[in-house]
Design brief:
alpha/beta, Leucine-rich repeat, LRR (right-handed beta-alpha superhelix), Phosphorylase Kinase, domain 1, Transferase(Phosphotransferase), domain 1, 3 domains, seven-stranded mixed beta sheet, 14% strand, globular, leucine-rich repeat, At_inactive_RLKs, ATP binding, signal, nucleotide-binding
Length: 622
């Protein structure tokens, strides 16, 4: 009997040891990892419930938020700490003690320091998100040892040095985002056919040399901002290598002297002709360009104006910078001034109103509330200028609203204004120009012959980004009376260099008082979500799309609603598409009170997205 009891005890001990979840060492390591990430917030681990005495993978345990586990292994699979204001460093040695870690999300923080070489100890890592931080130094060559890596996002940091060539040999790598860093050298020969739309981007670095073969289908936007790059898909071809010439025999001293003086006299003569010709050309160009610039200035300032001759007079430029040394009240009292809110990322020059009006302008679009122009500055940098017809409210209210919105616009999915101008003649708002255009144009292009289709995961990522950006702005601008977007639609969702969505023109228009600013934005987002799911861009009346979707759903033909390109695409789940459709329909409810808040919408979409990623990881590991 005693032997049986001992056997049963040993059996139960070893059995529960196998399913007990993460070990005590792993729990302590993860807590130390979090403490290194948040040195100024020592209570963060406690608030998140990261406690070494509890098992993060025990379904009955309280705490351990911001991570998920693999049910079968009872081990931590995903850590999600994005957008939490973390300003410490990455201790990869502690992080990688979790042996089953597959996804790490640390983007949209203020993390400093380097990316440690010990990151290669996370041998099962598939997705690593470190974008929008303050990381520096070179990329460790050990990154190439992550043989299971699928997506690497290091965008919008301060990384420098060359890319490890061995990175291109990770056969399953399908996402590589390093835009907006200081990386240099050549681009390795990746398996470019593995990358979907928007999942490869090396723009705005210091890369040089020819672009490897096979990158033609990636698109030129992924390589912009690297002056030394050449070859397709960029328009500038690479120069052929110059043939080496055989050495010529040395001339005699007398012959060399004769040739020298003859050449010098010819150079002086030809230089005179060239200088005269250049002067005449410059004068002619000055006259021609001056006339064209005057016409363009008139086009920007006077178009759509009731006055036949409308002009703006700038008294001075008020540079506020990121700290806003001028108050809302002082900005409101300024008249006829260009208020510079932030430094443009596309031009290093100081923005001045006279130069803005002199620059060549191209009309991009015209809507109910105004027109948008692409303006090319003297240094070649492009800006987008919105000229408003009637934004609602007085000029003073408009100025106060613009300053408040700028102080809140600190989210990666919200495009902040660079400057604004307000006078009795009209209002202008300046933004950095986004080369990849609007979501509306992308959806229209995908429905035309030859247009590229965008898969389910991309559409889900875009929906989540817009929802998070809106929820953030609603929260930040709720203290003194909510400022909503006021005119949210797919043409105001611009795609940045990494093909991530940026909400533009926030707060330029005062929303109708009937629905409330927040609920009006929720409705606008719902229409955008329906556009993403159906692939049907709104033509005139957004309510028509909502009515059509509702009618199809009522007939129980729900699957007929979805864009055929995502239904037939890889990784798409009909169940999760239906969940997203239900979110969209809740947002466009005719009753404003019945619509959810943007914070609730963002939570619902992120839950679907996390479920989608877990499903993808499980299918990849099987």
């Amino acid at each position: 009997m005693e032997h049986s009891a001992l056997f049963l005890f040993l059996f139960l001990f070893f059995f529960f040891s196998l399913i007990a979840g993460e070990s005590d060492d792993v729990r302590k390591s993860l807590i130390r990892f979090l403490e290194k990430l948040s040195p100024n917030d020592p209570q963060l681990a406690q608030r998140l419930g990261w406690n070494a005495s509890t098992d993060p993978c025990n379904g009955t345990a309280v705490g351990w938020s911001n991570l998920t586990c693999i049910d079968k292994k009872m081990a931590v699979q995903t850590i999600s700490l994005e957008g939490m204001g973390l300003n410490g460093t990455i201790d990869a040695g502690e992080l990688c003690r979790a042996p089953s870690l597959v996804v790490v999300r640390l983007q949209d923080n203020f993390i400093r320091g380097i990316l440690p070489a010990e990151i290669s100890n996370c041998t099962n890592l598939m997705h690593l998100y470190l974008g929008n931080n303050q990381l520096v130094g070179g990329l460790p060559s050990s990154l190439a040892d992550l043989g299971n890596l699928k997506l690497l996002d290091l965008s919008n940091n301060n990384f420098s040095g060359e890319l490890p060539a061995a990175l291109s040999r990770i056969s399953g790598l399908s996402g590589f985002l390093v835009q907006n860093n200081n990386l240099n050298g050549s681009i390795p020969g990746f398996w470019f056919r593995n990358f979907g739309a928007g999942y490869f981007n090396v723009s705005y670095n210091q890369f040089a040399g020819p672009i490897p073969e096979g990158a033609e289908d990636i698109g030129s936007a992924a390589f912009l901002g690297n002056q030394g790059l050449c070859g397709r898909p960029l328009p500038n071809a690479c120069s052929p290598p110059s043939p080496s010439s055989s050495p010529s025999p040395s001339p005699s001293p007398d012959q060399g002297k004769k040739d020298h003086w003859g050449t010098r006299e010819k150079l002086i003569l030809f230089s005179g002709y060239i200088a005269l010709g250049l002067f005449l050309l410059a004068y002619a160009a000055y006259r021609v360009l001056g006339k064209k610039a005057a016409k363009r200035n008139k086009k920007i300032v006077a178009s759509e104006s009731s006055s036949p001759k409308s002009s703006f007079t700038m008294n001075k430029t008020v540079a506020t910078g990121s700290e806003h040394p001028i108050s809302t009240e002082s900005a409101a009292t300024e008249g006829s001034t260009l208020v510079v809110l932030k430094k443009s990322t596309t031009t290093a020059a100081e923005l001045k109103f006279e130069e803005l009006l002199k620059a060549p302008a191209e009309l991009l679009g015209r809507g109910r509330f105004g027109s948008v122009y692409k303006v090319v500055m003297a240094d070649g940098a492009a800006l987008a200028v919105k000229r408003l017809k009637d934004s609602g409210g007085s000029g003073a209210e408009f100025r106060r609203r613009m300053v408040r919105v700028d102080m809140a616009a600190r989210h990666p999915n919200v495009l902040p204004a660079v400057a604004f101008y307000c006078s009795a003649q009209g209002k202008l708002v300046v933004y950095d120009f986004q080369q990849n255009g609007s979501l509306l144009n992308l959806l229209r292009g995908s429905n035309r012959a030859g247009g590229g289709a965008f898969d389910w995961s991309w559409r889900l990522r875009v929906a989540a980004g817009i929802a998070e950006g809106l929820a953030f702005m609603h929260k930040e601008l709720d203290s003194e009376g909510l400022i909503g977007h006021g005119n949210l639609k797919s043409s105001n969702i611009l795609m940045n260099a990494g093909m991530d969505p940026c909400i533009s023109e926030y707060g330029l228009v005062v929303a109708n008082a009937g629905d409330g600013a927040d609920k009006a934005d929720v409705y606008g987002f719902g229409i955008i979500l329906l556009e993403l799911l159906t692939g049907k861009p709104v033509q005139n009346d957004p309510q028509e799309l909502a009515k059509w979707v509702n009618s199809v759903v009522r007939e129980e033909w729900t699957v007929e609603v979805f864009d055929k390109s995502i239904v037939s695409g890889a990784g798409a789940s009909e169940e999760r598409m239906v969940q997203m459709l239900q979110v969209g329909l809740r947002c466009v409810n005719p009753s404003a009170k019945a619509r959810p808040s943007m914070d609730q919408v963002a939570s619902m979409i992120n839950a679907v997205r996390e479920e989608d990623e877990r499903s993808l990881l499980v299918s990849e590991s099987e």
